[in-house]
Design goal:
disordered N terminus, 9 strands, binds iron/sulfur cluster, metal-binding, nine-stranded mixed beta sheet, TIM Barrel, isomerase, 11 helices, alpha/beta, metal ion binding, 2 domains, binds pyridoxal-5'-phosphate, iron
Length: 332
């Protein structure tokens, strides 16, 4: 029987069958990937599916989102909660590890599910939306914790909340006198740019400074639709920062990193963090050792504008927090 033509992707693909129907994995891979899907969520948005070249086995967009059976193998050094958030959780949805800032996680769903995700054991489409009562308790915690000057909304991805709900949370936080800065970490502007509507931009146009840390790992993720979404955000007064993970097969060359950081800057996104991979289960194929990461960054120094330079950081095990990995130069 001849192959059916690949359907036009208009919906997020959420399972192995959907990936095969879209021509993104071979049919005979489906049973193996169904075992992966039973453990880790799958989501590939139309925007990201459109960027994948199915003929390229090393496609850097596919590498980030298309599951592989190796994910079922947990290496000895991999741990369930690599950032050790749990001991720093005073109440559901809040993580307070550093004195002046704390995380608020209103939900644990994302527009896409990245295969290297450090929160892969907890993120998913049907988990983690705080109840009204839990959200109210979390907001009340921020109101009575004056040491916290910055609220960082993360998850999951806060930008998949409805503009009305997100706007209400931001307005409430911005009204707290000791909260000086709001920050959101999100993959939406590149992975699902259609969600950045005028209504969402309006919800983000709060009185206090709002920094949006955009997660992107490859220059190609900055599609024309992503450009439109990012422009809409800057026009709403949002300050854009970039956050990336150093990933084997995605951005593990000086050229790929240069292209990524230059693409960010062209879209008014200032590279902020380049993360060393956290050791979440089944992510070993993405590992780039820190010495290799430092060598890559050394190649970029002087070659690209200083605006492109990120902080290369690693989350220390056991909750010690993020530390810079260098590189450093001996001077004097
Ligand atoms: C990463 C992180 C932050 C933010 O750290 P910055 O260095 O300010 O970007 C805050 N709280 C927790 C628990 C974190 O993991
Ligand atoms: S968007 Fe972030 S939290 Fe969600 S799967 Fe990707 S890395 Fe994990």
């Amino acid at each position: 029987m001849p192959e059916a033509p690949a359907p036009h992707h208009t919906r997020t693909i959420r399972d192995a069958n959907g990936l095969a129907a879209a021509g993104l994995v071979p049919r005979d891979a489906v049973p193996g990937l169904e075992a992966v899907q039973a453990r880790y969520s799958i989501a590939v948005t139309p925007a990201m599916a459109a960027l994948i070249d199915p003929a390229d086995p090393a496609d850097p967009i596919a590498a980030q989102y298309i599951p592989r059976t190796e994910e079922l193998v947990t290496a000895p050094h991999e741990v369930l909660d690599p950032t050790a958030d749990e001991p720093f959780t005073p109440l559901p949805g809040v993580v307070h590890r550093y004195p002046d800032r704390a995380l608020l996680k209103p939900l644990l769903a994302c527009p896409v599910y990245c295969r290297f995700c450090f929160r892969r054991e907890v993120v998913g489409p049907d988990g983690g939306l705080l109840t009204e009562a839990a959200l109210e308790a979390a907001l009340a915690w921020f109101e009575r914790t004056p040491a916290v000057r910055e609220v960082i909304l993360t998850g999951g991805d806060p930008l998949i909340l409805s503009p009305r709900r997100l706007g209400a949370i931001l307005a409430r936080l911005a009204a707290i006198p000791h909260v000086e800065i709001l920050r959101i970490h999100s993959r939406v502007p590149v992975a699902d740019p259609a969600r950045v509507t005028a209504a969402l931009a309006e919800a983000l146009a709060v009185e206090k400074p709002l920094y949006l840390c955009v997660h992107a790992n490859h220059a190609r993720e900055f599609s024309p639709d992503a450009a439109t979404a990012l422009r809409r955000l800057t026009q709403a007064g949002v300050v854009l920062l970039g956050q990336s993970v150093l990933l084997r097969g995605v951005n593990d060359s000086a050229e790929a990193l240069e292209d990524l950081f230059r693409a960010m800057l062209r879209h008014r996104v200032k590279p902020y963090y380049l993360h060393q991979l956290d050791h979440a289960p089944g992510t070993a194929r993405f590992e780039v050792p820190p010495e290799e990461g430092r060598a890559l960054l050394r190649q970029l120094r002087h070659r690209v504008t200083g605006l492109a330079w990120p902080n290369y950081v690693q989350e220390r095990p056991g909750g010690a927090g993020k530390v810079p990995l260098g590189p450093v130069w001996e001077v004097g």
